[in-house]
Specification:
Strand content of chain B: over 45%
Distance between the termini of chain A: 32 Å
CATH superfamily of chain B: YVTN repeat-like/Quinoprotein amine dehydrogenase
Number of helices of chain B: 2
Radius of gyration of chain B: 24 Å
Strand order of the largest sheet of chain B: 2-6-5-4-3-13
Number of strands of chain B: 33
Structural class of chain B: mainly beta
Largest interface: A-B, 35 and 39 residues
Shape of chain A: elongated
Number of strands of chain A: 10
CATH architecture of chain A: Beta Barrel
Oligomer: heterodimer
Helix content of chain B: under 10%
Number of domains of chain B: 1
CATH class of chain B: Mainly Beta
CATH class of chain A: Mainly Beta
Number of domains of chain A: 1
Structural class of chain A: mainly beta
């Protein structure tokens, strides 16, 4: 838990560094300014799945620093912390396309990358085919190895001024996490989740 | 635009509803090799006599010994001279673990089927009847150093295994098995029962861990939980009459007169089978959980419990139960044992395969003083099943089948050995 808190503090620090000056300025739309240059998006939300899952809606936090290649297209690098089943630090490449060149604009996004495992050993229920009747679940201890993730989605940006706005996004998360129990046994967990996030954007 | 967003949201919500996490395991396992059901049903074949490799249950009819080659087939020996049994022939019968014989018809399991074979002419054995899909799906022996991969029952029956890495979703499936007596070579003997050779209808004598029994024109077959009742009024055409749940973890079936005793891991259940198609429950006798071969003679049932294994406890003992009142079995006495496997009884003479302690022979005339009446002990004779038949003691162990002459209990003499390859 300490490690997770430290990570959140570090990530929050990144926000303040990349956030530059938090000036509430007139919206670009009104001034006719272009959406270019560096930006930071920091959001948090839930990865929602079936209620039958052991973790039906784990928390997700991510901060992304990037650059507007054009008024409507941006690329960035994101890092965060998530708890799909244990603790992970996703590091992703982020691309966004804003439909309008205005302060209020829908956008489409796509990010994907690798989730670093932060936990040690974790116990998971394992299956078995057996000729010995055993009515109770079997558990196997696995070492988390991390995994990859993809998250296409869409959302809405609303700038309150030249440098600050809020951002809401919904996406479809595909994630595969790897685990190993010694050399002989491996476990893959495939997640398909609805990501729902609310965040802020700095320019 | 709003509509588009709403539609997309609805689609995503729909996708998420079915978003159940998928767990996939990758491991080195016993991966099944299948025989299709079509092939299974044409697999019965008579072939030349062959050596025993992995002998299972045994059965006697007239002067012949039938030895199951576990999950593979049946060896037939002419035992006219027990000192020199002659290996006559072999029947290839995939998935076989149990047999019973009435007249000239041999009934056997073949994975999920019951097969009727005409053995009137041992030079021309042929399949004459089959009841398909009446027994639970079962598995052949496997390398227990590795777990089992998931089984796809639609592909057929599992005949062998290949050790390789498999990738599969997490599933949990239990399959009962019946080879090795089904429970680590625990043995049971059904002498004196409805499967006895003294039966006037020409039924043979069942061997170890009998799961099949014949009473009048009815064949009984037990799996772990269900009793399957077949009419054999037309011997070559068995007909399934009824299946019913008879408990759990049932290991053995034997009949004495019109009573049927089902031995389970935690007790013995008794039925009245005077109306064979409708067994009538009489009572249960509960004992400690354990592998529990049972024999019955007269008013007494003898049960050995073997502990220190997967059978469920650490106590090894002989339990003597009075069944004078069949509705109220009463435990008379228990005797400590070393590691009892099979046992057999001939009138008042009780034979127990007691692990490293060897074969013990008791005079059981006084059920309250059996331990004081040890007639003989043979540490060198180690087996997991023993069947006494009128002075002939037949024992089966890992290395084959032994026949002894016990007409002189103080001097049990080895007559012959049918070794394994």
């Amino acid at each position: 838990m300490k490690r997770i808190l430290t990570l959140i503090i570090l990530l929050t620090g990144l926000i303040s560094i990349s956030g530059q000056t938090l000036m509430i300025a007139p919206s670009p739309e009104k001034k006719g300014q272009a959406f270019t240059g560096y930006f930071n998006v920091t959001d948090m939300g839930l990865l929602i799945g079936s209620t039958q899952n052991s973790h039906p809606a784990p928390f997700s936090f991510m901060t992304t620093n990037g650059y507007h290649i054009t008024d409507q297209l941006s690329l960035g690098l994101g890092v965060g912390v998530e708890f799909p089943s244990g603790s992970y630090m996703p590091i992703v490449l982020d691309a966004r396309y804003y439909v309008r060149k205005t302060a209020f604009s829908p956008f489409f996004s796509f990010y994907g990358g690798y989730a670093l495992a932060l936990d040690g050993e974790t116990s998971y229920q394992s299956g078995y085919t057996s000729d010995v009747y055993w009515p109770y679940p079997n558990y196997e201890s696995y070492k988390a190895k991390g995994g990859w993730l993809l998250n296409p989605g869409f959302g809405i940006r609303n700038m309150f001024g030249e440098n600050f706005g809020i951002i809401f996004s919904v996406g479809y998360r595909v994630e595969r996490l790897y685990f190993a129990a010694g050399d002989q046994r491996k476990l893959l967990i495939d997640y398909n989740r609805l990501s729902v996030k609310l965040g802020i954007i700095f320019r | 635009m709003k509509k588009i967003v709403i539609y997309i949201m609805l689609i995503l919500a729909g996708l998420t509803t079915g978003c159940k996490d998928k767990f996939t395991e990758i491991f080195v396992a016993n991966s099944p090799k299948y025989m299709t059901y079509t092939d299974l049903r044409v697999a019965v074949k008579q072939s030349a006599a062959t050596d025993l490799v992995n002998p299972g249950k045994i059965y006697f009819k007239d002067q012949y010994i039938f030895i199951v080659e576990e999950m593979k087939g049946i060896h037939i020996f002419d035992n006219t001279n027990p000192s020199n049994p002659i290996n006559l022939t072999y029947i290839e019968l995939p998935g076989n673990a149990d047999i019973a014989i009435k007249g000239n018809i041999l009934y056997a399991d073949s994975y999920v089927d019951i097969v009727a074979l005409d053995i009137a002419d041992l030079a021309a054995i042929r399949e004459v009847g089959r009841v398909q899909n009446v027994l639970p799906y079962t598995l052949p022996p496997y390398d227990d150093k590795y777990p089992l991969a998931v089984i796809d029952e639609t592909k057929g029956v599992v005949t062998s295994w290949e050790i390789k890495e498999v990738k599969q979703e997490i599933t949990t499936t239990y399959y009962p098995t019946y080879y090795n007596g089904g429970f680590n070579k625990t043995a049971d003997v059904a002498t004196g029962g409805g499967t006895s050779g003294v039966s006037p209808n020409g039924v043979g004598i069942g061997g170890s861990m009998a799961r099949f029994g014949i009473y009048q024109n009815t064949l009984f077959a037990i799996d772990n939980t269900n009793l399957h009742i077949f009419s054999i009024t037309v011997p070559a055409a068995p007909v399934l009459k009824k299946d019913f749940n008879a408990g759990w973890s049932i290991q053995t079936l034997f009949t004495v007169g019109d009573k049927m005793f089902l031995g389970s891991q935690s007790g013995m259940r008794i039925y009245d089978i005077s109306i064979p198609n409708s067994p009538l429950y009489i009572c249960d006798f509960w004992h400690m959980t354990g592998c529990d071969p049972v024999v019955v003679s007269g008013n007494y049932a003898y049960i050995t419990l073997r502990g220190g294994n997967a059978c469920g406890n650490n106590v090894s003992q002989l339990v003597v139960v009075s069944i004078a009142d069949i509705t109220k079995p009463v435990e008379l006495k228990t005797y400590p044992m070393e590691e009892p496997y099979g046992l057999g009884v001939d009138n008042h003479t009780l034979f127990i395969c007691d692990g490293d302690a060897g074969l013990k022979v008791f005079d059981a005339s006084d059920p309250l003083a059996i331990s004081k009446n040890l007639l003989a002990q043979f540490p060198d004779i180690q087996a997991y099943d023993v069947i006494p038949i009128k002075g002939l003691l037949v024992m089966i162990g890992d290395d084959g089948l032994y026949q002894y002459d016990y007409s002189n209990l103080k001097d049990i003499r080895l007559l012959s050995k049918i070794g394994v390859k």
